[in-house]
Structure formats: C-alpha cells, structure tokens
Amino acid sequence: MKQIITVLLAVVCTAVIVSSSGCASKAGSTVNLETEINTTQLTNYGKVFYAVVRADSEKDFVRATYESVYNSFLEDKDPTNIFISPDNDSISKTIKVPSGSSVSVYFLFSKPGGKAWKYRIKKLDKDMTYTFHLGENYIQKVKAGSSLLF
Fold first, then answer.
1. pTM
2. Does residue 140 have a pLDDT over 90?
3. Domain that holds residue 112
C-alpha cells in the first residue's frame, strides 16, 4: 500500500510540474502580426494619415467611435501607431501582440467613409500577415496570408 501511495504521489508531482511549466511557458508569450497596408494616390485624398493597431476586447471594438480612437491615438505614443504617407503605395510593419489576443485595426482617414474604417482580427495565436487594401477613405479588402477575408 505504501508503494502505491508513493507511486501515486510521484505521478501527481510530475503532472503538476509538467502542467505548470507548460502554463509558465505560454504566459506572456507574444506573436508577430505583420500588417501590410496598400494605398493608391487617391487614398485619404492624397493626404497623410495613421493606422492604429492594438489588442483590445470585442466590446472596445464595437464601442469604438472614430473620435474615441483618434483621441486615444493623440494621447498614446504607442509603437503600434502607423504613419501612412501618400508617397508610399505600400507600407509594412510588424507588431508584437499577446498570443491568443484579438486585435483591432483602425484607419484614421481625414473623412472616414462609413463603417469600413476599422477591422477586427479574432484570436491571433500564431505569427500572421494581414494585408489591407485601401480605397479613398475605406478598407476595400483584407487578406490573411493568401486568404481573402473582406
């Protein structure tokens, strides 16, 4: 009986060590989100503008107004803010985000055109590239890797 209890304790201790080390290695891990933004000379009427990329909740994304995102952009000097110049027809930036988080991408056009100024990436758990093709003042289409999403 003592041998069985000793073996059971050893198995339980090993299981606890293995599971806690697995959790510890995942806690705080990040993934790379590469954003590629393609524009034309007509995008934002040829004026500079910004994109804001940040991990946030679905609730924050739904509640986000153009004004609230713009105000947080002005207050926040986060490296996830992307400067977009009409001189470049494509810009790429890699951003580290917490693994498993959802990410919102907001385009701060001078005159936003409807609801296509923001996009939601749900549960990013591996390195991924998202390509955004922009029209005058809206998102025309989005690709994740080689898959067309929007």
1. 0.77
2. yes
3. 29-148
